[in-house]
Amino acid sequence: MTEMSKIETPALLHEVTEFLWTEADILDGKRYDEWLDLWTEDGLYIMPMGDGEDYANQVNLCYDNAKMRRDRVGRFQAGFSISSAPPALTVRTISRIVIDRIEGDEIHVRAAEHVIEDKFGRQRQWAGNAFYTLRRGERGFKLHRKIVKLLNSDGMLNSFSYLF
Amino acid sequence: MSLDTAKFSDLDALYSTDAKVATQMYEDPGLFAEEMEKIFKKTWVWVAHESEFPDKGSFRLSHVGLEPVIVVRDRKGAIHVMVNRCRHRAATVCEVKKGKTSSFQCPYHGWGYGLDGSLRALPYPEQYGDDFDKAQHGLLKLRTEAYNGMVFATFNEDAEPLVDFLGPEVCRYIDLFMKQGGGFPVKVLGEHQFAVPMNWKVQLENTTDAYHFPIVHKSFMQTLDAQTTDLFDFLDKGKGWVEDLGNGHSIMMMMPEREDLDDHLDDPIEDRFEELAAEIRAEGYDEAQVRKIVRAVGGAGFNLNLFPNVSFSLSFLRVLTPKSVEQTEIRHIALGMEGGPQAANQARIRLHEHFQGPMGFGSPDDAEVWERVQRGTKGGEELPILVNRGLVDEVPGVMGPRGHISAETGMRAAYEMWKRMMSND
């Protein structure tokens, strides 16, 4: 682990923030092909339920490897998923960004996420804690792990036609 | 409450003999209140699977209709279902969804109840006088019976025994469904919960409705491999059927070759499960066991809908809880193998996540059409909702009529039962 004190944290935080905001902008814009390109091939996008952390062995809201991410995006884009055509509109805020630690070329970041969705003239809002593992590549960061824990994730939710 | 009001006295107008459902069936708050009294407080309502509270003292919260209940196993292993309401001033005595305890204590004035609901102690009892009888002040208990791990409760002391309410065919299909334990006990692995702005009967109609599957679930189908797509092509192949099993229950047999998972064990392992089979072999299981487990991972070949609130769907349980006339909560419960290979349970979980829940490739599309039904009924109130599909070529089945796989026979079974229960005083 690299000593945090030896890192230019303000500069890194700025760089990380810019990346997370770009991803948020891509998701709100539903530019999903661009979003797929943000990932490492062996990356995992997980939305767990409850407090458990053994994601492979528990029921999650989603547990997406590269194939599932592509299939999910395909579903959103093909136009015959009735819940995604039209999809809910979203506006999200990513804030309270904290760099937890750095291990080799991996940066572990957490942030608050707040999503407002609008569909059928009705707005709903969701809040969650997002945990990212970013890998530094030749052309900037890649998402290697993204884990979004919604508040009340094991409680009563609704269907989502978008990503967090 | 009685049905003597003019509004609901004509049940034939609400569900006609030619299988048309009146719009107000989804919309009328007064009718909803009657349903809660005449159906949900009168019949067997599913509350839990035994694996959700396996040990002495373990419990989970549930509902019987609108009423919050605690399902608990006492020190002797007996199951109790009781209303989650202190007998003193009505506070809930438990707000933990699931857990283990030795007693329930009201947080307001400290009344304490045993695992069987009996009132054990209350602070400073003197002011209630000498004739206060603790035996009369236990938590309100429901009749509770279980069949093959499925726990049901009812407020109705006169209800027929659970097995009679289910009937022989339903019991047979439950036994077949539970074979997806692959030789291990079936265990709840987790659940998704989501709320949909719809009347509960919109969901009741859905689980044995094959007609919607290729339309609503086209985007799910597109993510399947060719072999699995073929498996789910039950509407075109038309080998299956849908059948009224009596008392409002129905079955949709989609894949007859998967009716009994102990059959066809010598067939080649499906391509999609070859990797899984290798992993299970690597865990030390012999070939016969591997085949049995792998076949079980794919789930049963049918959906079984039990009136009024639970269904068995391929590999999971779907539970509906009515909240108001236009609001229903849905649970999709993932099932696995207690003590079975980890790889098999992981595969079951990934299959569950693929289709079910708020982020699944199936549930959001179901939820959307259910909500669309509720939104659509705001218009053209005089128009009936049609559940008459397949009446033309129904044949007698074992208990009731049997129709084409895409027939609305299951809905008619449910509405006949609805009418029977709603006509009782």
Automatic annotation (TrEMBL), chain A:
<keyword id="KW-0614">Plasmid</keyword>
<keyword id="KW-0223">Dioxygenase</keyword>
<keyword id="KW-0560">Oxidoreductase</keyword>
<protein>
    <submittedName>
        <fullName>Aromatic-ring-hydroxylating dioxygenase subunit beta</fullName>
        <ecNumber>1.14.-.-</ecNumber>
    </submittedName>
</protein>
<dbReference type="GO" id="GO:0051213">
    <property type="term" value="F:dioxygenase activity"/>
</dbReference>
<dbReference type="InterPro" id="IPR032710">
    <property type="entry name" value="NTF2-like_dom_sf"/>
</dbReference>
<dbReference type="GO" id="GO:0019380">
    <property type="term" value="P:3-phenylpropionate catabolic process"/>
</dbReference>
<dbReference type="InterPro" id="IPR000391">
    <property type="entry name" value="Rng_hydr_dOase-bsu"/>
</dbReference>
<comment type="similarity">
    <text>Belongs to the bacterial ring-hydroxylating dioxygenase beta subunit family.</text>
</comment>
<dbReference type="Pfam" id="PF00866">
    <property type="entry name" value="Ring_hydroxyl_B"/>
</dbReference>
From TrEMBL, chain B:
<protein>
    <submittedName>
        <fullName>Aromatic ring-hydroxylating dioxygenase subunit alpha</fullName>
    </submittedName>
</protein>
<dbReference type="InterPro" id="IPR001663">
    <property type="entry name" value="Rng_hydr_dOase-A"/>
</dbReference>
<keyword id="KW-0614">Plasmid</keyword>
<dbReference type="InterPro" id="IPR017941">
    <property type="entry name" value="Rieske_2Fe-2S"/>
</dbReference>
<keyword id="KW-0408">Iron</keyword>
<keyword id="KW-0411">Iron-sulfur</keyword>
<dbReference type="GO" id="GO:0051213">
    <property type="term" value="F:dioxygenase activity"/>
</dbReference>
<keyword id="KW-0479">Metal-binding</keyword>
<dbReference type="Pfam" id="PF00848">
    <property type="entry name" value="Ring_hydroxyl_A"/>
</dbReference>
<dbReference type="InterPro" id="IPR015879">
    <property type="entry name" value="Ring_hydroxy_dOase_asu_C_dom"/>
</dbReference>
<keyword id="KW-0223">Dioxygenase</keyword>
<dbReference type="GO" id="GO:0051537">
    <property type="term" value="F:2 iron, 2 sulfur cluster binding"/>
</dbReference>
<keyword id="KW-0001">2Fe-2S</keyword>
<feature type="domain" description="Rieske">
    <location>
        <begin position="44"/>
        <end position="153"/>
    </location>
</feature>
<dbReference type="InterPro" id="IPR036922">
    <property type="entry name" value="Rieske_2Fe-2S_sf"/>
</dbReference>
<keyword id="KW-0560">Oxidoreductase</keyword>
<dbReference type="Pfam" id="PF00355">
    <property type="entry name" value="Rieske"/>
</dbReference>
<dbReference type="GO" id="GO:0005506">
    <property type="term" value="F:iron ion binding"/>
</dbReference>
